[in-house]
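Students often ask why inverse folding is considered easier than folding. One informal answer: many sequences map to the same fold, so there is more than one right answer. In these notes we will look at a single instance of the problem. The structure comes first.
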């Protein structure tokens, strides 16, 4: 069924909410993701299936923009924490996709269909896991309460595919802000008071539902108001450029007080985790402009007799690896691994260093052993397969990843990760399986938002000799899907 929507003030607001990360690179201080409109009839306007389709189209546009952080360890951690919260929400069957945005600003957002993005800056600004979880639970609540979808209630003239195209158009506006962003901002300015009136209700509701989710998940519920309060107190330090989160999620003293009161009604939960601090350390390493200076500071810190926490030693080891001091890095990582042998972060860092220092057999053995502890772990599967390929073991790499090629489950994030399909293509090519290589590359291009290239790859696959009737039928069916999608996209250009 084709839903017709009118691009009203609320629809423009939804667009800005969903694309806050995309436009934030150039104009983070001008964007708002306030979530208007409250009602009970959202399901009559756009179905969950249609919303998920819109979200998938939006996600492809985000990937196409190049703003998704290409770091599987950080993404896997976020997905794990997100799933823990989502399964303890008031709508545990709601599908979610969690991803990390390569953006230093302090922000997070909820897009259509349960697509939730978290800026790297938010990881670094959170002092413990409960604070990050508090923001994530708040965004999950925006989705489960269908705040975004309810913004469609006042609309009647724009199709769902058109809305997805509009999201993409504003993404393009990241490169040319005067083209797309200016129009959206003008619409927002005309309805500012309208937005604020609805924002308060949505934000309070997301706080209430999110705090319940935190408690259900066994995480310290005070993490949410604690983070809000600290941001508010420190906002004066930011001058005219306060944290983006305070713009997109207005925080008041009354709101903090109410959230604190709610949190205090629950028993204490988990406040922090080693995994969070390790991921935070990893992101710091990725953000340092002068790692040599950080290394010098750490050495001075140790000379003073200061005790280093495990995540501090881990961060130091990663920095040493970056600056080509591999042997010292190996020594530290081996020590960390021996004291905490099941910690996946240490295993991954050690295996990566083995590969970099010319010991692929040690890396392969460690990956294989780790996958017995964590079967199906994407952050292990991908570097393992990559190492196998680099070591001339294409068949083994293919066997490691092949299930991803045949399973198409949109509710399972693993099978929607482009890394899988690029590696499958490389393995297939090395094995002389050209049809499968083109098929995997087609999915890789599709997930990254390049529909035309995805079609071209399937057309090449179809030309390969030796295809069975079943394989040809599958290719033809997928080609039809992609061509239909391309026509929808081209209608909006």
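Output (designed amino acids):
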């Amino acid at each position: 069924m084709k839903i017709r929507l009118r691009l009203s003030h609320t629809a423009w607001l939804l667009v800005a909410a969903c694309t806050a990360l995309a436009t934030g690179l150039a104009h983070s201080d001008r964007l708002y993701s306030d979530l208007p409109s409250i009602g009970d009839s959202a399901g009559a306007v756009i179905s969950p299936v249609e919303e998920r389709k819109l979200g998938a189209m939006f996600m492809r546009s985000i990937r196409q923009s190049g703003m998704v952080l290409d770091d599987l360890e950080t993404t896997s951690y976020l997905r794990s924490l997100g799933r823990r919260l989502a399964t303890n929400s008031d709508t545990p069957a709601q599908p979610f996709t969690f991803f990390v945005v390569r953006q230093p600003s302090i922000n997070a957002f909820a897009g259509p269909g349960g697509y939730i993005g978290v800026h790297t800056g938010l990881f670094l600004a959170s002092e413990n896991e409960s604070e990050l979880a508090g923001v994530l639970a708040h965004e999950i609540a925006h989705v489960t309460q269908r705040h975004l979808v309810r913004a469609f209630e006042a609309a009647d003239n724009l199709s769902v595919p058109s809305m997805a195209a509009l999201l993409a158009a504003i993404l393009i506006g990241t490169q040319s802000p005067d083209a797309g962003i200016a129009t959206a901002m003008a619409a927002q300015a005309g309805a500012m008071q309208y937005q604020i009136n609805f924002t308060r209700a949505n934000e309070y509701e997301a706080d209430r539902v999110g705090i319940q989710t935190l408690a259900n998940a066994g995480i310290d519920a005070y993490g949410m108001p604690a983070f809000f309060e600290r941001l508010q107190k420190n906002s004066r330090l930011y001058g005219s450029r306060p944290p983006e989160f305070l713009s997109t999620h207005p925080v008041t003293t009354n709101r903090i007080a109410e959230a604190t009161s709610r949190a205090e009604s629950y028993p204490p939960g988990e406040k922090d985790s080693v995994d969070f601090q390790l991921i935070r350390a990893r992101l710091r390493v990725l953000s340092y402009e002068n790692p040599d200076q950080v290394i010098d500071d750490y050495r001075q810190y140790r000379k003073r007799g200061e005790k280093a926490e495990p995540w501090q030693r881990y961060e130091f080891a990663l920095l040493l690896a970056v600056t080509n001091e591999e042997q010292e890095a190996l020594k530290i990582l081996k020590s960390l691994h021996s004291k905490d042998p099941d910690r996946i972060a240490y295993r991954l860092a050690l295996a990566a260093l083995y590969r970099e220092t010319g010991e692929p057999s040690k890396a392969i053995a460690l990956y294989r052993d780790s996958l017995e502890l964590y079967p199906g772990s994407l952050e292990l599967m991908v570097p393992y397969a990559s190492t196998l390929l680099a070591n001339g073991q294409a068949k083994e790499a293919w066997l490691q990843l092949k299930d991803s090629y045949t399973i198409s489950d949109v509710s399972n994030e693993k099978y929607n990760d482009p890394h899988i399909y690029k590696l499958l293509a490389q393995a297939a090519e090395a094995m002389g399986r050209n049809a499968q290589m083109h098929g995997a590359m087609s999915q890789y291009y599709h997930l990254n938002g390049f529909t035309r290239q995805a079609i071209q790859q399937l057309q090449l696959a179809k030309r390969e000799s030796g295809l069975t009737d079943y394989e040809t039928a599958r290719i033809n069916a997928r080609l039809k899907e992609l061509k239909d999608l391309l026509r929808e996209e081209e209608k909006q250009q």
